[in-house]
Amino acid sequence: MNINELKVGLIGGTGEEGRGLALRWAMAGARVAIGSRTIERARTTADELNQLVPHNPVSYGENSRVIAESEFVLLTVPFAHAAATLESHKQDFRAGAILIDITVPVSFEQGRVRYVELAEGSASEHLRTRLRDEIPLVAAFKTEPAHLLADASAKLDCDVLVASDDKEAKARVMEAVKFIEGLRPVDAGTLYSARTLERMTVLAIGINRRYKIKTACYRVMGL
Amino acid sequence: MNINELKVGLIGGTGEEGRGLALRWAMAGARVAIGSRTIERARTTADELNQLVPHNPVSYGENSRVIAESEFVLLTVPFAHAAATLESHKQDFRAGAILIDITVPVSFEQGRVRYVELAEGSASEHLRTRLRDEIPLVAAFKTEPAHLLADASAKLDCDVLVASDDKEAKARVMEAVKFIEGLRPVDAGTLYSARTLERMTVLAIGINRRYKIKTACYRVMGL
Questions:
Q1: What is the pTM of this model?
Q2: A115-169 tens-digit pLDDT
Q3: Hey, of A161, A174, A196, A219, which one would you mutate to test binding to chain B, going by the most B CBs within 10 A of its CB?
Q4: What interface predicted TM-score (ipTM) does this complex get?
Q5: Pseudo-torsion of CA B184, B189, B194, B196, nearest 10°?
Q6: What is the Cβ-side half-sphere exposure of residue B102, based on CA atoms within 13 angstroms?
Q7: Nearest Cβ partner of A195 from B148, B199, B220?
Q8: Domains of chain A (ranges plus CATH)?
């Protein structure tokens, strides 16, 4: 895989997690496009990123166009909008595209951070049903803290737990993750594992609160 | 806390996880007792451990006696026997004792490792209801691999995620974990987090299988 040929599109790429991942993929050398519902917001984020990574300019566009032109489509909208976003863009994915789902359903009721239980077991399994069968869905970057990704000066030291029912798509995403400095892909198995990965994010949010940090992430030791 | 005054009892201490934890606590300098339903089995395990850690002899006894004499009671029976074991020993816990629950409900149907969903949300929450109210339950060591703990020559490099609704008991367990070389306690919040910790064990078992290792454990980075 040549990273400089890989087209990565970020749907909802103007949020902190989206910007952070766009930044890291751009730093890795991928061809990155920021998608948004309004082209002005996409441009603002792309402009910001281009200040940080001038040698590898990031492009931008409306979500539909970015999805149509990307091989890795990263869904980085808040979970509450994820299903509707996917459904309205169902036909936009090109053949061979892979959806990378980073969403985590979380609530902050009464000051407590809680995982929102879904009938399908996880956000990834929930969103899988909103996508055309031939488009693989890969869960990844669920446990990477937005704050850390978005800080260009922060060195990463985290594992990216990658789960999918499509082994080939999972392998492609894992290969591409290796290009991002400080991130190591770990094969987390089938999409069933998203139930664990999403809860690990909720646990990390709790750890961040208790330890007054914003940087908690995981490494699998003994590998 | 003086570790050499801490009495640690292992219920079902003849299994691999129990033996491994007994070994690590003995190496740390705690006063360790192996409990079993039959005193002969407890003695066999204690004898084995005393070969490995001759400077800090491990004692043994029937479960009832070991529970009555321990401040930290580690429940290391398989999950399938955990509730019944606790219920039959409900009255044996002394005042001030803490139950450390390491159980994980897991099934291996059709070659697939799966988390067994419980009505209460986790094994720890399930077992909490089987214990007298005044005995705190602390979830810990859920994600530490038995194989790694039981191998005296293996250096540990894992975080012990510790969860409890009783803050004081949690703090005591975290303090004591620090005495075990290579393990770092991390405050994982309330017992609700056991839902995540137990699933992380299932994920680690899957990672072990895919990577053909037996040593996968976790570290929280950025702390």
A1: 0.97
A2: 999 999 999 999 999 999 999 999 999 999 999 999 999 999 999 999 999 999 9
A3: A196
A4: 0.96
A5: -80
A6: 27
A7: B199
A8: 3-211 (3.40.50.720)
